[in-house]
Amino acid sequence: MWVHQVWRKNTREGSGKGRRVNDDETYSDGPVAALRRIAFLLERGLQDSYRVKAYRTAAAAISGSDPDSLRVAAANGTLAKLDGVGPSTAEVIAEALEGRRPARLAAAERDFGGPLTEGGAGLRRRLRGDLHSHSDWSDGGSPIEEMAETARDLGHEYLVLTDHSPRLKVARGLSAERLERQLDVVAGINAGIEEAEGSGFTLLTGIEVDILDDGGLDQRPGLLERLDVRVASVHSKLSMDAAAMTRRMVAAVSKTPMNVLGHCTGRLVMGGRGTRPESKFDARAVFEACAEHGVAVEINSRPERRDPPSRLIELARDTGCLFSIDTDAHAPGQLDFLVLGCERAEAAGIDADRIVNTWPRERLLSWAAARR
């Protein structure tokens, strides 16, 4: 099990964003770092998951391998015969072993390594973590460990793991039994973190739990209360009558242990899944309930969501709500999307202290625990 030996100070995956690169420059970080960086950049650029998987699979396949053995394989032209390594990833490995910046890495830096926004950088520096992320335990593309390590590499102090709840079968939502097993895995990861000198990072337990038709939550109450943070979202019957949707959301905010109202309108404005209109509900009534009960309204940073719309961010601001700027990341590179939400929060004039993930970990956990 990945715990102590794999939690290590690898090359910072998030470093070097946006810098211009020379295809011929020397490279000293090694083939594993090169493969992980390419995958990170492709994820950041919302590229097809099958392209990303090849690089992450190859990185895992050669992690811990003797560099001299890899050099012999490269010289013999047999790198691509290793399990998990194909012709493209073999080329990256060979170039990195020679101390040359791999051509595919240089291309990925040029195409996907630039700034994601013109604004938001000031607020982004204030954020200490991300409260909404997914792993391959539900519909994410990478193991929990990869998500945690990337969050640490990006400078996060904490990341909340929020895989889906059981009702969302299409996303492999976690049964109570699977969620309990996941808590043990997170505990093991955190044990490894504590042994890493100066990491300053914690993986927090959580869930993105479905809000049911009656406003209840799709997980055992006792298990929900064991989690550090609970994001609750509507994923079904998004086009239901506005009055019924309002009752559903207000009931969840008022009567359950949820902490964050995720992507509240459910809209999609672009992307491979097409577009989807906003759900209809009385936003003022929902936000008033959030303000009264200390539930944060999520500013979802995914570019295909941009949820809530700007007018609703402003309404939530004027209603006195707290906010959480989250990535809803389904792959490690998407953890870099936080700045997209920060740009929108800055444009709306949201005070940083009203954004719960600017808070230190202990303050965040104290706030979240008050809803148990």
Structural features, described:
This protein has 372 residues and is α/β, with parallel strands linked by helices. It folds into 2 domains: 31-112, DNA polymerase, domain 1; 121-369, Metal-dependent hydrolases (TIM Barrel, Alpha-Beta Barrel), CATH 3.20.20. The protein has helices at 31-44, 49-62, 67-76, 87-97, 103-112, 121-126, 144-153, 176-195, 221-224, 242-255, 283-293, 310-319, 338-347, 361-369, and strands at 129-130, 158-161, 202-210, 229-233, 260-261, 296-300, 322-326. A 7-stranded parallel beta sheet has the order 1-2-3-4-5-6-7.
Placed side by side, the strands forming the largest sheet appear as 1-2-3-4-5-6-7
Distance between the termini: 31 Å
- Number of structural units classed as domains: 2
Given helix and strand content, the structural type is alpha/beta
The assembly state of the depicted protein chains is single chain
Low-confidence runs: 1-21
How many distinct beta strands?
A: 7
Give the DSSP E fraction (strand runs of 2 or more residues).
5-15%
Q: How would the global form be characterised? A: elongated
Calculate the mean pLDDT score and round it.
92
For the record, what CATH class of the largest domain applies?
Answer: Alpha Beta
State the main characteristics.
TIM Barrel, seven-stranded parallel sheet, single chain, 372 residues, disordered N terminus, 2 domains, DNA polymerase, domain 1, alpha/beta, 14 helices, 7 strands
